[in-house]
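FAQ

Q: What does a record look like?
A: Structure on top, sequence underneath. For example:
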């Protein structure tokens, strides 16, 4: 499992170039993936959303735009440099009302039980030192009937896996080293992507955490997937 201190230090180092690296390394497809996540959340018309591992704030900002007036979005991350990027982006976009960024650990969310209609996390679950604990915390802060939405890398269809593995282990660290000056950070990220469970395994972890109506949808030949689950009204 990832070491929290090392992960925190890594994201602090790459925060200023994080968005640029995402766009270049994914060929811009990460914008589409996040759009799918935001669309899935908006369909449920939540009035309060917690975006964990919010990073530079892309999902939180998009959610605030997509949701109804009066809805609130809280973006939470344990990396202060990432939060600084998110707040700067928020200021540039003039997205003040209904959106807040706050420091916090997804393994011990500093908020009461049943606080949100929806909880999201995009490309952050695989960096958690304890996925089961993170999923349990997400469920805890959801209201009964609330939904979790997880966007994460997955295992692609078999025929594309050799090429994808080469891209992750050779191309990504090299290109990211040029873009961010921190090749080691992206060597870790490439490894974490390659070792992350596939859709069925992650769906099993969601059920084990107590979520109902668990479902997943593959995207881009299975390279990424959108997962969802419900905190039941009686649980």
């Amino acid at each position: 499992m990832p070491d929290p201190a090392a992960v925190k230090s890594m994201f602090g180092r790459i925060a200023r170039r994080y968005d640029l690296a995402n766009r270049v390394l994914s060929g811009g497809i990460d914008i589409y993936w996040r759009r799918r996540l935001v669309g899935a959340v908006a369909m449920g018309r939540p009035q309060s959303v917690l975006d964990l591992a919010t990073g530079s704030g892309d999902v939180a900002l998009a959610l605030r735009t997509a949701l109804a007036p009066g809805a609130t979005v809280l973006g939470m991350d344990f990396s202060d440099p990432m939060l600084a990027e998110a707040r700067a982006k928020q200021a540039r976009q003039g997205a003040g009302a209904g959106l807040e960024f706050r420091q916090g650990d997804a393994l011990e969310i500093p908020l009461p039980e049943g606080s949100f209609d929806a909880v999201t996390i995009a490309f952050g679950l695989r960096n958690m030192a304890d996925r089961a604990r993170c999923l349990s915390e997400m469920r805890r802060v959801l209201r009964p009937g609330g939904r979790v939405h997880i966007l994460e890398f997955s295992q692609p269809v078999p025929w594309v896996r050799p090429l994808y593995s080469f891209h992750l282990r050779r191309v990504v660290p090299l290109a990211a080293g040029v873009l961010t000056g921190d090749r080691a950070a992206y060597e870790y990220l490439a490894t974490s992507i390659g070792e992350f469970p596939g859709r069925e395994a992650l769906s099993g972890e969601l059920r084990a955490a107590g979520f109902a109506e668990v479902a997943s949808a593959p995207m881009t030949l299975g390279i990424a997937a959108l997962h969802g689950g419900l905190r039941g009204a009686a649980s």
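Q: Is there anything notable about this one?
A: The longest strand covers residues 142-153.
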